[in-house]
TrEMBL record:
Gene3D superfamilies: Glutaredoxin (3.40.30.10). Coiled coil: none annotated. GO terms for molecular function: oxidoreductase activity. InterPro entries: Redoxin, Thioredoxin-like_sf, Thioredoxin_domain, Thioredoxin_ResA/DsbE_sf. PANTHER family: PROTEIN DIPZ (PTHR42852:SF13), THIOL:DISULFIDE INTERCHANGE PROTEIN DSBE (PTHR42852). Residues 30-169 form the Thioredoxin domain. PROSITE patterns: THIOREDOXIN_2. CDD domains: TlpA_like_family. This is Thioredoxin domain-containing protein.
Length: 174
C-alpha cells in the first residue's frame, strides 16, 4: 500500500515537473541578456525585413492580433512613439499566424501605421522568440542584438517610453 502512494506521488511530481518545464522553457531561453534570433521576416506588403541587419540600433517587436482589443488600442500609441523616436530605434509589428491578412491591412490603414508590419503566417517568428502566448507581447532588443526586455500583456504608452529609455535606446546612441 505504501509503495502505491510513493509511485503515485512520484508520478504526480513528474507530471508537474514536465508541465512546468513545458510552460516556462521557451521563456527561459529568451530572457533578458540572451542573443535575439537572426531572422528574415516577411513583410505584410511584400518584401522582407532582416533582423540581423538592424544590429547597432534597438528594435522593439510588438506581437499582436487584429482580434485582440488591447493590441488594436495600442497601435496609435505605438505609431506615435515610432514617429517621435524615428531614427533612434526600429519598431516592427508582428501579427500572429492566425490573423487574417485583409483584417491586418484594414486595421493598419485605419491606425495609420507606418512602421514595418510582418504577418507571421507560419508562426516561425513567434516561435523563434519563445512563443507569444499572450497578445500583445513586446520584445525589446538592444543595439548589441541582445534581448533587453520581454513584456507580455502590453504596455501603456508612458511605460513603454520609460522601458525604451532605460533599456538601451539612449545608451545605444551614445
Amino acid at each position: 500500500m505504501a509503495w502505491r502512494k510513493a509511485v503515485l506521488a512520484l508520478a504526480l511530481a513528474l507530471v508537474a515537473g514536465v508541465a512546468l518545464w513545458w510552460t516556462l522553457a521557451p521563456t527561459w531561453r529568451h530572457r533578458a541578456g540572451t542573443l535575439a534570433p537572426a531572422l528574415v521576416m516577411p513583410l505584410l506588403g511584400g518584401g522582407n525585413i532582416d533582423l540581423a541587419r538592424l544590429r547597432g540600433r534597438p528594435v522593439l517587436i510588438d506581437f499582436w492580433a487584429p482580434d485582440c482589443a488591447p493590441c488594436v488600442a495600442e497601435l496609435p500609441e505605438l505609431e506615435r512613439l515610432a514617429r517621435a523616436d524615428a531614427g533612434r530605434f526600429t519598431l516592427i509589428g508582428v501579427a500572429m499566424s492566425y490573423s487574417d491578412p485583409d483584417a491586418l491591412r484594414a486595421i493598419a490603414a485605419r491606425a495609420g501605421i507606418s512602421y514595418p508590419l510582418v504577418w507571421d503566417r507560419d508562426g516561425r517568428v513567434a516561435a523563434a522568440f519563445g512563443g507569444a502566448r499572450v497578445t500583445p507581447t513586446q520584445v525589446l532588443i538592444g543595439g548589441d542584438g541582445r534581448i533587453q526586455a520581454r513584456v507580455e500583456g502590453g504596455l501603456a504608452g508612458p511605460l513603454l517610453r520609460q522601458v525604451l529609455r532605460h533599456d538601451g535606446v539612449n545608451d545605444a546612441q551614445r
